[in-house]
Design brief:
Largest sheet: 3 strands, antiparallel
Radius of gyration: 33 Å
Strand order of the largest sheet: 2-1-3
Strand content: 15-25%
Shape: rod-shaped
Distance between the termini: 93 Å
Order of helices and strands: EEE
Helix content: under 10%
Structural class: mainly beta
Number of helices: 0
Protein backbone atom coordinates (compact mmCIF):
# COMPACT_ATOMS: atom_id res chain seq x y z
CA UNK A 1 0.00 0.00 0.00
CA UNK A 2 1.32 3.46 -0.86
CA UNK A 3 2.02 6.13 1.73
CA UNK A 4 0.40 9.51 1.07
CA UNK A 5 1.41 12.81 2.64
CA UNK A 6 -1.20 15.31 3.81
CA UNK A 7 -0.99 18.90 5.07
CA UNK A 8 -3.53 20.56 7.33
CA UNK A 9 -5.03 23.72 5.87
CA UNK A 10 -5.41 25.31 9.33
CA UNK A 11 -2.28 24.42 11.34
CA UNK A 12 0.00 23.33 8.42
CA UNK A 13 0.86 20.06 10.16
CA UNK A 14 2.17 17.46 7.72
CA UNK A 15 1.45 13.79 8.26
CA UNK A 16 1.60 10.54 6.33
CA UNK A 17 -1.06 7.87 6.00
CA UNK A 18 -0.77 4.43 4.46
CA UNK A 19 -3.77 3.96 2.17
CA UNK A 20 -4.86 1.73 -0.66
CA UNK A 21 -5.27 3.04 -4.19
CA UNK A 22 -9.07 2.95 -4.03
CA UNK A 23 -9.48 4.33 -0.47
CA UNK A 24 -11.06 7.74 0.07
CA UNK A 25 -8.55 10.54 0.81
CA UNK A 26 -8.01 11.36 4.49
CA UNK A 27 -9.89 14.55 5.35
CA UNK A 28 -9.00 15.40 8.99
CA UNK A 29 -5.75 16.50 10.64
CA UNK A 30 -4.79 14.29 13.61
CA UNK A 31 -3.77 17.34 15.70
CA UNK A 32 -6.58 19.85 15.21
CA UNK A 33 -9.22 17.75 13.38
CA UNK A 34 -9.50 20.38 10.63
CA UNK A 35 -9.52 19.70 6.90
CA UNK A 36 -6.29 18.42 5.33
CA UNK A 37 -5.26 18.27 1.71
CA UNK A 38 -3.04 15.73 -0.01
CA UNK A 39 0.47 16.91 -0.92
CA UNK A 40 1.73 15.83 -4.32
CA UNK A 41 5.41 15.27 -5.02
CA UNK A 42 7.03 14.95 -8.43
CA UNK A 43 8.17 11.46 -9.26
CA UNK A 44 11.92 10.92 -9.25
CA UNK A 45 13.68 10.66 -12.60
CA UNK A 46 16.38 8.06 -13.03
CA UNK A 47 18.67 8.48 -16.02
CA UNK A 48 20.02 5.17 -17.28
CA UNK A 49 21.86 4.37 -20.43
CA UNK A 50 23.80 6.32 -22.99
CA UNK A 51 23.04 9.93 -23.83
CA UNK A 52 22.38 11.48 -20.44
CA UNK A 53 25.81 12.85 -19.68
CA UNK A 54 27.53 16.02 -20.86
CA UNK A 55 30.11 14.01 -22.76
CA UNK A 56 27.45 12.02 -24.62
CA UNK A 57 25.29 14.91 -25.79
CA UNK A 58 26.65 18.30 -26.76
CA UNK A 59 25.43 21.31 -28.64
CA UNK A 60 26.37 21.41 -32.30
CA UNK A 61 28.04 24.82 -31.89
CA UNK A 62 30.39 23.67 -29.11
CA UNK A 63 34.00 24.48 -30.02
CA UNK A 64 35.43 21.38 -28.37
CA UNK A 65 33.04 19.10 -30.24
CA UNK A 66 34.01 20.36 -33.70
CA UNK A 67 37.70 20.32 -34.49
CA UNK A 68 39.14 21.87 -37.60
CA UNK A 69 40.55 19.43 -40.10
CA UNK A 70 43.81 20.29 -41.80
CA UNK A 71 43.48 21.74 -45.27
CA UNK A 72 43.73 18.81 -47.66
CA UNK A 73 44.40 21.05 -50.69
CA UNK A 74 47.91 21.74 -49.43
CA UNK A 75 49.79 18.59 -50.24
CA UNK A 76 53.33 18.21 -49.14
CA UNK A 77 55.82 16.34 -51.24
CA UNK A 78 58.73 14.54 -49.75
CA UNK A 79 62.07 14.61 -51.47
CA UNK A 80 64.88 12.27 -50.76
CA UNK A 81 68.30 13.85 -50.60
CA UNK A 82 71.32 11.72 -50.98
CA UNK A 83 74.01 12.08 -48.36
CA UNK A 84 76.86 10.79 -50.52
Amino acid sequence: MPIYEYECIHCHHRFEIKQGFHDKPQAACPQCQKKAKRVFHPSPIIFKGKGFYVTDHRKSGDSSASKETPDSSKTKTETKKSTD
